Amino acid sequence: MPKTLKSDPSDVRARNIRAVFRLLFPAEQMSRAELGRRVGLSRMAISEVVGEMTENRLLRETGVDSRSGRGKRSVMLVVDPDGWRIVSIDLTQQFVIRGALVDLCGRIVDRVEIPCENMGDVPLEIVGELCEKLLSMTDRPLLGMGVSVPGVVGQDGTVIRSVNLGWTNVPLRQRIETRFHVPAVVSNDTNMALLGECYFGDCSADSVFIKIGQGVGAAVCVNGEIVEGCGYAAGEIGHVVVDPKGPRCVCGKRGCLEALLSVSYLRERIDAEPEDRTAILSEAGQRLGRALAMTVSLLDLSDVSVFGPPEIVGEAFIGSMREELESCISADYRNTPSLHRCQQGDDLVLRGQAVAVIRGLLDSVHSRGLVEDVVHFTSEGEQSHHDPDEHSGKSGD
Length: 397
Ligand SMILES: [Zn+2]
What we know:
disordered N terminus, binds zinc ion, ROK, 13 helices
């Protein structure tokens, strides 16, 4: 949808707030003068923007710039980790639902897990229960809630289809917002892992992220934006046939990427022929490299990240994947993409989902006061205990 080009003062203000936050998130520090230069604002204008952001505890001042050395010392600004909390839920694990309280720098400050026997039929109630538990563990104001779901999620936060959870057309975002009276974001899990890797790991703004687990999924980021696709199913590459003579897949087809690369399939083969372990993993890496060559070339991506259990996605896998990728796409007009194993561990999805909540808030900043944007939402319900002013002086979670 084309955006209008009108530029009223509140748009400019919102854009400046976003620009300042992006420069500092998650762990940069800059002086007012440097921020002003980078955003293109006068001394007075940047002071005003920063003033509003510190007042609302998005930023805080910190010591002095150690880089400035002799002479005048300047106060530095950083993202304030203590002003707000985000509830982040990860529905991708087997037999357990994980949730965390995350600070504004994307760090996990507390966590809760609820065991879930039958992941193929997860009751919605259990998600609400986990949110309740996490809320009871903090006295900070809540910026919002985010839930990562293995499956196809529409723009309105409806889970269109999650085979793993047994959900079809579940209006999850709406349910959470109605119950908890805070903004909620519901996202595809692999997209959130990519977002986490971009901010806390090694991905650049043009990258593809591959997640190998019980299934195989991908997420693509172009120019810093995650590609969703016309039906929100971008990255659902698990059931694309790469070897028509390959093994039968759960979906009924033969030789899907997932049938050849899922962790359970590879473990089964290695258990049957332990002496062929390296050969099996090299072959798997080669297949993935070949399958991705077209995507990487089509979009001219600079990074490929692979996430999976270390005993599967190890040297043999990554080495032969790199070799295949390079030999498939080599050309004198193209840079070879960098390929690496994602090192962020199991918290990647939780942290990436928290980033999506923060970005969601910043995108919705308009003419009202920053905090008002959240509080207004909150006060539509009866949960006035999320009023940030009430708690801004308290400490401890
Ligand atoms: Zn399949």
